[in-house]
Specification:
Helix 1 (10-35) packs antiparallel against helix 2 (42-68). By secondary structure, the protein is mainly alpha-helical. 64% of the residues lie in helices and 3% in strands. The two termini are 25 Å apart. The protein has one domain: Fumarate Reductase Cytochrome B subunit. It has helices at 10-35, 42-68, 80-110, 131-166, 170-175, 187-192; strands at 115-118, 121-123. Strands 1-2 form a two-stranded antiparallel sheet. A hairpin with a 2-residue loop joins strand 1 and strand 2. It is elongated and about 55 Å long. Its main location: membrane.
């Protein structure tokens, strides 16, 4: 019988922190685009498009890696409601990391704007041009952007809670340090640990 994992693999940790940086950059770029008037935000849009596609591809890779490498189980003394909230927020973050770029791609396709990754690299449209669809997708993209921001803050808060208050090793497991024997994990959570890889800032599964 294999020993229980107490930290994430190197691949999971690298993907986690790279995507954390990309999503944080994407959020700041999005704020800049909303706050900038006229056509002065075009250079931000030129960064926004390829960054979104990069996040989409990395999220798919992380999903694949996560399915092959279950997360370390949660501490056994973590309250049930916190355990449920951690798992739900974990799945929500992954859904957002995949849905947001797809919505942006579909929105630009419906608006007749090409998704340019470079001066000579253009992605195909995934929706026909349609003004009504463009308006709906633009609203949905904006709403989900706010949701992603709040989920990001929740994960950051949870990471600080685990590191500074509970001191249960959850954050250390995403930094590459093994959880100590004084930080046991419950058998029930071992069954729950076959979900997706770790989002932005670690909560239960980082």
């Amino acid at each position: 019988m294999n020993a229980m994992r107490t930290s994430y693999s190197l691949t999971q940790r690298v993907l986690h922190w790279v995507m954390a940086a990309l999503i944080l950059a994407m959020l700041f770029i999005g704020v800049g685009m909303v706050a900038t008037v006229s056509g002065k935000h075009q250079w931000l849009l030129a960064i926004h498009k390829p960054l979104g596609i990069a996040i989409l591809l990395l999220a798919i890779v992380r999903l694949f890696v996560r399915l092959r490498n279950p997360s370390p189980p949660l501490p056994s003394d973590l309250p049930g409601l916190q355990r449920i909230a951690a798992h739900l927020s974990h799945w929500l973050l992954y859904a957002l990391m995949i849905a947001m770029p797809l919505l942006g791609w579909a929105m630009l396709s419906a608006g007749g704007s090409p998704v340019m990754l470079a001066s000579d690299l253009r992605l195909p449209a995934i929706l026909p041009e349609n003004a009504l669809a463009f308006a709906w997708l633009r609203t949905a993209h904006g709403v989900l952007a706010y949701l992603l921001f709040f989920v990001f803050l929740a994960h950051l808060g949870a990471a600080l809670y685990h590191a500074l208050i509970r001191r249960d090793g959850v954050l250390r497991s995403m930094l590459g340090a093994a959880r100590s024997r004084a930080e046991p994990a419950s058998p029930d959570d071992r069954a729950c640990s076959v979900g997706i890889g770790d989002p932005i800032a670690p909560t239960d599964e980082a």
